[in-house]
Design goal:
single chain; alpha+beta; 158 residues; 2 domains; Alpha-Beta Plaits
């Protein structure tokens, strides 16, 4: 009987030791997972910052109907907006547009609004001039339709 008791005690101690080792492994894995999650959040923040830095000179034009830029290009749309809403800026010859294009199609059938136009300017100061003038004027229009000019930010920053 005494022998059985010692065997049972030894087996119980061995089981407790194994459970302790498994608990330690679980704790190590949880800590590693927390570190991994923290790194992922850190990297996502850096990606967002880089994306916003790349878009630093961009302006997003909201409210221009589809196909409106045909013939004159999306660059021409911004030039017309400047001429219509900010004649004093239109007289300045320094505003240089590098490129302009519509945002890609997104399949959202519930939303009937037109895709936005993204305009990349050569200089950040030009972007700031245009946005400052837009903030100064309450309502912007393009051929009588209300529009908005906003800074272009990454999707995560929005």
């Amino acid at each position: 009987m005494h022998n059985k008791m010692e065997t049972t005690t030894a087996r119980l101690e061995e089981a407790e030791e194994r459970i302790g080792e498994l608990e330690d492994k679980v704790m190590e894995k949880e800590e590693a997972e927390k570190k991994r999650e923290k790194k992922i959040q850190e990297y996502e923040g850096k990606i967002r910052e880089l994306s916003d830095t790349l878009k630093r000179n961009n302006i997003r034009i909201i409210g221009i109907p589809e196909e409106e830029e045909r013939g004159k290009g999306a660059e021409g749309v911004l030039e017309e907006i400047i001429a219509e809403n900010f004649p004093e800026l239109g007289k300045e010859k320094g505003i240089e547009i590098q490129e302009a294009q519509r945002t890609p199609f997104r399949r959202n059938l519930n939303r009937s609004s037109a895709r936005h136009i993204i305009v990349k300017l050569a200089k950040y100061k030009d972007k700031e001039k245009i946005l400052k003038a837009a903030r100064g004027k309450r309502a912007l229009t393009y051929k009588g339709r209300p529009i908005r000019l906003v800074t272009d930010l990454s999707f995560e920053t929005w």
